Amino acid sequence: MAQGQKRNTLVNPLAAQAMDKFKYEVASEIGIQVPQSGYWGEMTTRDTGAIGGNMVRKMIEAYENSLAGTTQGQQY
After folding, report:
1. Model confidence pTM above 0.85
2. Which of 40, 52, 58, 70 sits in a 20 to 30 Å window from 20, CA-based?
């Protein structure tokens, strides 16, 4: 399969490994079986979209908590 142009590069290239780990964690949390080969191309768009959507949701939640000065589940 052709690679095409990758336009969604990370601002901090050192975060690539952490983002990949985060992707696998979110997939397992929502019950999606991740490919053992590491090739995501055979997964459905619905599954990969659910993983990405939940990643964004968790990142927004973490940022909002940092703005409010709280940690997850705690309020001051």
Report:
1. no
2. 70
Tell me if 32 sits within 8 A of 51, measured CB to CB.
yes
Q: Are 61 and 68 in contact (CB under 8 A)?
A: no
What is the spatial distance between Cα 46 and Cα 49, in angstroms, rounded to a whole number? 5
What is the tens place of the pLDDT at every residue in 25-50? 999 999 999 888 888 888 999 999 99
Rounded Cα distance between 50 and 56, Å, is: 10
| Euclidean distance between CA atoms 71 and 53, whole angstroms | 21
Cα–Cα distance, 24 to 42 (Å, whole number):
16
